[in-house]
């Protein structure tokens, strides 16, 4: 591994925080991963793109091994890999653009000082892009999914890389110019995207929530909260929140919704089925969306979705694109996390805990057939369309890191 | 107030500068895990296939410790080597610095802390833990509570607070409590101050708790808590190691230090508790706790510290339903049954029709066909041949169990031992790879019945191809420890087997004690039934007896070595305070001892010289009239005891009066007291002899008062 010392320390601390679950929530994880990877691109020595890809892959493997259940890590790594490949491909066509952005071309190597300058540059760059991008994004949301630059088939792109590798000298000279562009793309495509996910999803609220509807939700999700809050600005509707035992996130959610003036009712989880007949729509958040359109969501979601299916109530899942994972759930327990049973049965029940087995799964797997629509930050799609979104976002070469 | 603001600012500055230090006492200073700890230090024994110390360091790292000192005594090289090769020292820019402090001379926690004090390594408040803590607790709240007591602006300021004990709420029969070492904490719920600490050994069973009445004057409300799990996580102030140096006889952290600080009026220090009820904390002190903590980890109470978090970077475990954890390259035969709460290390093979439940199996183990493993802990590279049955036992690295062998509850098989074929080890057998050393490492007082013991147990057959030596549990060196306390602490202990130790100790109500322990429902009724104050009195009497013996030795040394009275008095005070003895007991011992110094061949000059020198010592332990009367009673009884001492009584009385050790009033009171008349004929005779003296005194006094009148 050729990471600089400071970066290695950053990576180590991120890994230990992931392991200790001091950093939870896919948004925070995704953002930190993206920032680390951007630093890798800007501060590591790499002569050509294959080396960079290898470095990112190795790091990605380490990061996702630290907390395999936090799928956002792998997703961001895959996005970065895709961007690098895109840039390499795009570079061949548009040589001139690169030259404009490369000021340090005269330097024959990247000394540490240069790298730092470089990072500062990229930060400045990043800020200006951010300002620009928020405007862009507002435009985006109106016309559904924006057209991404179309690729040739993945395999051919990879061949392109391999071929280039053979005449190294020529290629590495060009890679100086690639660096700022990759950083710019990471800033623009990933980090700026992350900044605007909540807004992107919330902006579509009015299309889905109508006046006087009864909405049911479960758990605490910032995406869902923003979505409903936005809708409440214009429309009058009622929300029923399942309390989501044993974490009682639902109560927190209800408090947050009530605070913005939404008529909110809290029910116990066991009352979900009974209440479902009155509900017009179920809106839930997700921890991750898997390749088949199934989702990993807070415990109890499967029950809500199944009850909704029985009553033919539509189920909407609000999820950002970075939660989309190309992994397939071969085993429904694969992505679940069992946390301490303390909340279910107190540890002080000394003699009892020895005799009873207590389980406290944190997530549920909700099968794709229970979901009607995914609302993501760039539009909406049914579960059967998830594979397309995944193909658009990731390179199939990178599914297994 | 500007000054305070400034002070506060200064304080904040130092806080930021100071690194959080932590001290791990890696040694257990006992032999609970023998013979395993004979070859490997306890903190490197694997718990769920991870060395125990990894959990402790991880816990300290979570809590933000930046500098960790590991105090190592036994096997210090192994600990050092392990730390150097672990991930903690590999990190090039890690914020955590670990240093192994080699302290080969230490025999107790007290010694280790004195060593720390001598080396001056501690510069701030620090976290003190044993090398055996498993916890997912974040200490920041406890640390904040500890620090805020030192600040003058907080709600409960107490500058004398020197320690905060972090305790976990449990229940009195909780499996995570150390059996045989439970203790009661008396806490003021409003400030969390610990006002009294009482160790509660189940045998002999304590029926009462003596609390100093002063405590009730100072605290409006107190709680006696017998439901706390004590993981021995302490946040200590800088002074703590120094206090240990000052009090060189303190050995244990709880029974000496905490009790010493709480009962001492001179130190004027206070100790606080922090009671946590949401996170997990426990300590592995004995094999029973090894079992319960391992099971807690498998059942995920310690989340996020669970096997699939892979504390050691080389491990990769996967979790599946029913709390089954599998490493990489695990080969399970088609017909084998893996039931709940099982962890299997990488490279392990399990044969046909074998059954594994509630167990941890290490790396690269080979388990044959038709094997039954229940609640057992197999470490790395263990080979289990066909048809073996293992129940609730520990089998260490590289051990081989040959065909058709059975290990019953509570067996411990050490490194590289071979057992079988076709033998059955009885319950609680311990097999070491080396013969048991004759003098136990920690045993100062060698118990003489070693040989008998060896002969008694060595008839256990290890099989034709068996290699290894039977070890017997000699227990701790604490002379007043009931052997049954150790038995309950062993792995898979079944209370029905307690009869082994029944004849020892008090046999008054063992049966009902067993009932109490095994069935908590009975507890409420039986407390009322089995309240025996006499028993605790007997116990107290025994303690006093011991104290007196020590006192006698000390004073005879003082006579022999011609100590000054001051030195002797200091020594007596020290003894009295450490044993919590009373002045009455002290007088009971020293008065006869002094009289015995008189050379009987020439009584008169001799008693004069003796009392001239040592009379003041009696004076030093005599405060007030009642005490003086007491001295006279002792004198009377002692002199009456032996014929040749009779004649010493009057001169002694006279001399003591002259030295102002006893005053006239006291003499009158003694003379008139009923007790002095009822101590037997010879004592009464002595009293009568004193009548002349009394008369003389009375006359003198009358004269005095006459003069006063005029």
Automatic annotation (TrEMBL), chain A:
<feature type="region of interest" description="Disordered">
    <location>
        <begin position="95"/>
        <end position="124"/>
    </location>
</feature>
<comment type="subunit">
    <text>Component of the translation initiation factor 2B (eIF2B) complex which is a heterodecamer of two sets of five different subunits: alpha, beta, gamma, delta and epsilon. Subunits alpha, beta and delta comprise a regulatory subcomplex and subunits epsilon and gamma comprise a catalytic subcomplex. Within the complex, the hexameric regulatory complex resides at the center, with the two heterodimeric catalytic subcomplexes bound on opposite sides.</text>
</comment>
<dbReference type="Pfam" id="PF01008">
    <property type="entry name" value="IF-2B"/>
</dbReference>
<dbReference type="InterPro" id="IPR000649">
    <property type="entry name" value="IF-2B-related"/>
</dbReference>
<dbReference type="InterPro" id="IPR051855">
    <property type="entry name" value="eIF2B_beta_subunit"/>
</dbReference>
<dbReference type="GO" id="GO:0005085">
    <property type="term" value="F:guanyl-nucleotide exchange factor activity"/>
</dbReference>
<dbReference type="GO" id="GO:0003743">
    <property type="term" value="F:translation initiation factor activity"/>
</dbReference>
<dbReference type="GO" id="GO:0005851">
    <property type="term" value="C:eukaryotic translation initiation factor 2B complex"/>
</dbReference>
<comment type="similarity">
    <text>Belongs to the eIF-2B alpha/beta/delta subunits family.</text>
</comment>
<keyword id="KW-0963">Cytoplasm</keyword>
<keyword id="KW-0648">Protein biosynthesis</keyword>
<dbReference type="GO" id="GO:0005829">
    <property type="term" value="C:cytosol"/>
</dbReference>
<protein>
    <recommendedName>
        <fullName>Translation initiation factor eIF2B subunit beta</fullName>
    </recommendedName>
</protein>
<dbReference type="InterPro" id="IPR042529">
    <property type="entry name" value="IF_2B-like_C"/>
</dbReference>
<dbReference type="InterPro" id="IPR037171">
    <property type="entry name" value="NagB/RpiA_transferase-like"/>
</dbReference>
<feature type="compositionally biased region" description="Acidic residues">
    <location>
        <begin position="104"/>
        <end position="123"/>
    </location>
</feature>
<keyword id="KW-0396">Initiation factor</keyword>
UniProtKB/TrEMBL annotation, chain B:
<dbReference type="InterPro" id="IPR056764">
    <property type="entry name" value="LbH_EIF2B3/5"/>
</dbReference>
<dbReference type="InterPro" id="IPR051956">
    <property type="entry name" value="eIF2B_epsilon"/>
</dbReference>
<dbReference type="InterPro" id="IPR011004">
    <property type="entry name" value="Trimer_LpxA-like_sf"/>
</dbReference>
<dbReference type="InterPro" id="IPR035543">
    <property type="entry name" value="eIF-2B_epsilon_N"/>
</dbReference>
<feature type="region of interest" description="Disordered">
    <location>
        <begin position="427"/>
        <end position="461"/>
    </location>
</feature>
<protein>
    <recommendedName>
        <fullName>Translation initiation factor eIF2B subunit epsilon</fullName>
    </recommendedName>
</protein>
<feature type="compositionally biased region" description="Acidic residues">
    <location>
        <begin position="441"/>
        <end position="454"/>
    </location>
</feature>
<dbReference type="InterPro" id="IPR029044">
    <property type="entry name" value="Nucleotide-diphossugar_trans"/>
</dbReference>
<dbReference type="GO" id="GO:0003743">
    <property type="term" value="F:translation initiation factor activity"/>
</dbReference>
<dbReference type="InterPro" id="IPR003307">
    <property type="entry name" value="W2_domain"/>
</dbReference>
<keyword id="KW-0648">Protein biosynthesis</keyword>
<dbReference type="GO" id="GO:0005829">
    <property type="term" value="C:cytosol"/>
</dbReference>
<feature type="domain" description="W2">
    <location>
        <begin position="541"/>
        <end position="707"/>
    </location>
</feature>
<dbReference type="InterPro" id="IPR016024">
    <property type="entry name" value="ARM-type_fold"/>
</dbReference>
<dbReference type="InterPro" id="IPR044123">
    <property type="entry name" value="W2_eIF2B_epsilon"/>
</dbReference>
<comment type="similarity">
    <text>Belongs to the eIF-2B gamma/epsilon subunits family.</text>
</comment>
<dbReference type="InterPro" id="IPR005835">
    <property type="entry name" value="NTP_transferase_dom"/>
</dbReference>
<feature type="compositionally biased region" description="Acidic residues">
    <location>
        <begin position="506"/>
        <end position="524"/>
    </location>
</feature>
<dbReference type="Pfam" id="PF02020">
    <property type="entry name" value="W2"/>
</dbReference>
<dbReference type="GO" id="GO:0005085">
    <property type="term" value="F:guanyl-nucleotide exchange factor activity"/>
</dbReference>
<dbReference type="Pfam" id="PF00483">
    <property type="entry name" value="NTP_transferase"/>
</dbReference>
<keyword id="KW-0396">Initiation factor</keyword>
